[in-house]
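Fold these two proteins, one after the other.
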Amino acid sequence: MTTLLINSIYRATEGEGIHIGIPQIFIRFQGCHIGCVNCDTKDTWDFDPAFTKSLDDVIETVEVLSQDLIKRVSITGGDPLHPSHVPSLIALINELKARNYYINVEAAGTRVVKEVFDIVDFVSYDFKTPSTQVKTSKELLARFLAEYGHKAQIKAVVSDKKDFEATYDAFHFAKTQNVPQVPWCLTPCYEPGEAFPMNRFQQVIQLNESFGLPFRVIGQQHKWAYGPEERLV
């Protein structure tokens, strides 16, 4: 029997990136070793067997939430692409595809997993900025874009000018590598206790203008609507 470590499964409207505003079913994996210091879902880090679910149970929950109206699934985490997750993740994707779901996978930007990326419909690939204290290899990013740029977006969480400049440097590097040009989406980050990062949002918009408007600046709509601490929205 195929089992998965699943933190939560819920229906919500996409709150960020180029698919903002689209209703989806979210499947959030439990377990992550990446360690972004500004992660807003640190409860998903532990590889806790208490979160074990059967593939049949996961599919049943998705079908109930879908009500045959929502045929889009976003797989996130945690880190669904951690090597220990990949076999069960592939089984999950294949079962969902057999039921005609459109599948997006959220990728942390630390690895390219061909056997997963080949079978999903879309990849949301992170560029990790300096404030996360996790590094995204520009060479790996270029490799990803060369192979999967036809079905991808790049997302970066931006805290300050240093984060913006690092993202622009990666964007410029990608342009020199003769790879497909894809949407790059910047998300102004929330610091602890912030209701809304208005000044940071304005700063990122102004930086984008001063650098020639290379990016789409898209905030986190779900945090505006429900507050930054609310989960499963």
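Now the second one:
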Amino acid sequence: MKITILSLFPEMITPILSASILKRAVENNSVEFNIVNFRDFSQNKHQTVDDTPYGGGAGMVLAVEPIFYALESIEGYKDAHKILLSPQGKTYQQEKAKSLLNHEHIILICGHYEGFDDRIRSLVDEEISIGDYVMTGGEIAAMAIVDSVVRMLPEVLGDEESYINDSFYDGLLDYPQYTKPREFKGMKVPDVLLSGHHKNIEEWRLKEKIERTKIRRPDLYDKYIKDNNNQ
């Protein structure tokens, strides 16, 4: 997979791509990252990429020109899946992360300032938001998407179960997990996990996942029950 990120602040992104699981993914050739500073494609001598909004209003608006020419500079950009990080986009969820695995090349566009020239939206395939709040720019949102997708690529985590049991992967929150010691200040590890009976452990884990989701995320619980009743 190839992931290209358009950003005004590559220095925010590079350290994250150079550490932990993302670094490992690059080293084993599971993913190739490319960062494009779209300020380099500004069409004026001052290299500005924003301007005041037509019709008046507060703040500055990201111009369409530098985004368009930055995209044009990317090999294969027409066939790539282009995503605009925007608070107006569809809320990002695990199902979307899984679906992005189907694309060989993803381009993420990080904005700044008050907003976008609306014509930028015509250049992308979809808009994604990571939540109902506004941040200074799209870099953190882009990194959230990158991490959630890349960790599911083959041979990145090394053990498929590391992510198929994650919260949200099957529509439920994750089950409780424990490690040594067996008892700490009166708090004990559930006996079933010490039994060695794999069938009982799996049944306990599913029960706990359902119960935890019901209590903490009733919206997910209701969807899970509805989906499973329709099967």
